[in-house]
Design goal:
- The chain is α/β, with parallel strands linked by helices.
- It is built from six helices and eight strands.
- It has helices spanning 18-21, 63-68, 75-87, 109-126, 136-142, 179-194; strands spanning 6-7, 48-49, 54-58, 92-96, 130-134, 155-159, 164-169, 204-205.
């Protein structure tokens, strides 16, 4: 019996994440693409780190990060940095899907989309082997779909063109005060950083 190959998707472009479809743009401190710049002390916050390893994308800067002009400066941000340094000795870049601190506002899909060209540039420049998306807004910035990160344990996607896995994880702030969830988070981050690459999604079928 002969089997015929069936194309599950029209093209690789149809598999691509939203961040791959954006033309990369360099960060600009005069960015006015959305209203968040109006109250932010640090407009269009820069990524930091060394390329060629991990890219860790959080949701947005907090109040302390906004005042300091640097990401992951608060309690949970420092916890994340310590944890990553314990699990990983290679280069790492830290970034946010939304570049300005929203304060008490929740970033809208329009705000996330406005920052996506900047995120696309960071993905290109960081040259990561793995991407960790922390929280639903980070997942939306990269993939384009909102995913409840807390309930998607060990979930992942792929950037279609570059074959880079994107691991979906909760933001540390959502689990930090719960020792059971914190233990799960640490186990899952170790799996995402050091485990074998996950199976790529099927493109064709028979």
């Amino acid at each position: 019996m002969q089997f015929s190959e069936i194309k599950l998707y029209a093209s690789k472009a149809s598999l691509s994440a939203d961040v791959e479809r954006e033309f990369p743009a360099k960060l600009t401190p005069n960015c006015q693409l959305c209203s968040l710049h109006e109250n932010a002390q640090t407009v269009c916050m820069s990524a930091e780190g060394k390329p060629g390893g991990l890219l860790i994308v959080g949701m947005y800067p907090g109040k302390l990060e906004d005042s300091k002009g640097r990401g992951n400066m608060g309690t949970t941000g420092q916890y994340l940095r310590r944890l990553v340094s314990r699990l990983w000795e290679g280069p790492v870049v830290y970034d946010h899907a939304v570049k300005c601190a929203p304060g008490k506002r929740k970033p809208t899909p329009t705000m996330i989309a406005a920052c996506r060209p900047y995120l696309s540039s960071i993905v290109h420049d960081a040259k990561p082997s793995r991407i960790i998306a922390l929280g639903s807004d980070a997942v939306a910035g990269l993939i384009g779909r909102g995913v409840p990160a807390l309930s998607a344990r060990r979930g992942y996607s792929y950037l279609a063109y570059s074959d880079i896995p994107v691991y979906i994880m909760p933001h540390p702030a959502s689990i930090y005060n719960n020792r059971i969830w914190r233990a799960k988070f640490e186990q899952d981050l170790d799996w995402a950083i050091n485990g074998p690459l996950p199976t790529k999604p099927p493109v064709d079928g028979v």
